[in-house]
Amino acid sequence: MKNIKQTFLLLILFTSQIFPQWTKLNEGIKGNYPNQLEFVNDNVGFTYLYPSTILKTSDAGKSWEELQIPSDLSLWQLSFVNEYIGWIVCSNSAGTKTFIQKTEDGGISWETQFEAPYENWYGLNSLQTLDENHIYGTSYNKIISSIDGGNIWTEIAPQGFVGEYRNIVFINSNLGFVSFYNYSNYEPSLLTTKDGGITWDIQSFTELSYIDKLQFITDSIGYFTAVDDSSDNLIFKTINSGKNWEQIFKSDTISFNNLKFIDEQIVYGTTWQGRRSQISYLKSIDGGRTWIAQNPKFYFYNSEYNFTQFTLSDIFFNSKNEGIILGNLGNYITVYTSNDNGNNWNLQKYSCPFTKLSFTDSLNGIAFGGYEVGGLHVLDSYGEVFSTKDGGKSWEIIFETPNRILKTNFINENIAYSLTKTGDWGMITKIFKTVVRGKNLTEIISLENEFKEHNILANDFVMIDENKGWLAGSYYDSISSGSIIIETNDGCKTWQTVFISKSTDFVYRRLTSIYFNDTTGWAVGESGQIVRYTPQSGWKDVKTDISVPLEKMFFKDELIAWISGGFYNGTEYEFILLSTVDGGETWQSINKYGYKINDMIFIDENKGWFVGNDNNENGVIFKTNDGGENWQLVLDNLIGSLYDIEIKDNHAWVSGNYGLLLKSNDSLLTWIDNNNKPLQNEFSLNQNYPNPFNPTTTIEYSIPLNDKRETSNVHLIIYDILGREVKTLVNEIQKPGNYNIQFDGSKLSSGVYYYQLKYGSFVQTKKMLLLK
After folding, report:
1. CA-CA distances (angstroms) from residue 505 to 475, 479, 719?
2. How far apart are the C-alpha atoms of 148 and 646, rounded to whole Å?
3. pLDDT digits (tens, 9 = 90+) for 63-107
4. Alpha-helical regions (H) of 609-762
5. Closest listed residue to residue 736, CA positions, set 705, 696, 698
6. Which of 78, 362, 660, 711 is most buried, with most CB under 10 Å away?
7. Angle CA 159–162–168, to nearest 5
């Protein structure tokens, strides 16, 4: 192989618009911990996600647009007065400053209007926009207001009060309310102003522990939620603009997260939830005095389904009886919409990552997904197995496990083993087995119960048949820790240690992945560790000069392979790529490589793909036609990292984070040898390859077997961007079959061209790009 260090970096970078061969079957929402839905009219609404994502919908939740703010800011509050003008409260990543920023173009651009040391403000507890000019905010011991659209801010908190100001609501520019927790007597109260914050009156509620949500639905009618000294949950109501408050609801079990009023009588409530047996919310038709649990039908694609670990964050109904539910599965965002006043809910956004795909043909496949709860502190984990019968357009859930599915090994099309983790920090390792392609996964071992020699943290495993397999990760005991490989020879019933490497004060050992290429095994991990297995010598360390973290290994054949890895240098992620051309005897580092490779597949000696992510964890797809010496960027800037690629029957699927699932159109695999490609059952014109090209490219098309015409000419014509005919490549009668035509553009100038196939009533046109 030629100099890999040089040629692998010769990446031809083009935007995804030039490679239109992929269809997004699913794309979720990037971010965690969704907050309140705030709608300014029936269609336009906003929400924000941790840490710095703002989402906007203009069609009542059916589609969402991400608004750009600096990634080093953490959002605290958001408030819009209409679809164009709004404010956000945020802090910098260092936690030293609090900002208020304003947009006047619907979130396209933002201007800082307020800046203060974070230690004096601790963010803001609430932010209210009365109109385009009047804005109010509360914080610890502070209330601020602006009467000129945010240009000038004034502190309006009453003197002599020490405590925390929570929700703030102004009915007009004079009359306003603030819920307050007094640090002097540890009692909650409501503060009322009738002169825009110049003076305040206090109304104490000595029987309450705290006052939470405060809102007014008219100038006279308002509500707040509270908890009393007995820990009962309460709702209070006023009908005279806060002069008097009446307790209208009390419960020792229901704790409201949000109240959403449709009118004075109809209100929806979301509750603080742990695990639930189904998604539910509450509805009142008497202004919040009594509540009825709503358990409508929820659909996952076309099947009725209730996620057992769904947490509902907020709910909204507009005047058209269209509803939106914002929630999360683990840390991943899910959006449901309803068109019939909440009787039926349809999935709009599903963000759970798909980690592994397996297709038996172009239509039937399964996918494994998983997500974590609690961020870095993994208290519980969950995994699911999905099935499709239409090539990935729709899915049904065929199995759920309370464990995060980490790795799945297929022995054949039906038998597979899944490695899972659960428990605090993912320390409990379990292995499941299925003999019917993902259905009825059965737990066959829990290593913390069966493997007594060490405490094992598993990261990867491989089964080469139903009996023999290996698991790689790290171990710790009372005297040492390090990397470990354990082996089973009886289908995971028993395990024994076959390799162990202790960490030292200067070298940390942990294996992250394990791989088999025929009878040779490989494992890689932290501190540049590479371990090789042969039947003759077992598992042995490979001595290298590498000291960086390694994560994945990919073999093209018995000689040529790559290892990818990376680490965070304190500012950004640096990706590592190693290559070998002698079966792993020596490894060469490709420095400063800009992409992390998570999966790679070759279909022959020359043609392959890899999927992964860039430095910002945006997904990328590359392909090669020369055995990996040169790679072309096919797609980039996807919302999440890509984890897996699957090819079956000339179709390709790619899966990744935030529910990313893509499928190639038929034309994508035109670079597969034509003589290995089955004849299509319909006319097809494939995308030219390479594309862009200089100066030659190949165009493929198919005439189906069921076509019996023998008198129609096939026309394949090249046009320029103005629609002028450039060249006729084919004008003749052709029999059913697969055809490929070479086009030489050496006499043409750079630019966009079109090629069109005509055959009887069949007409199809595609675009190509000539770059010189």
Report:
1. 16, 13, 67
2. 57
3. 888 887 877 888 888 999 999 999 999 988 788 889 999 999 998
4. none
5. 705
6. 660
7. 80
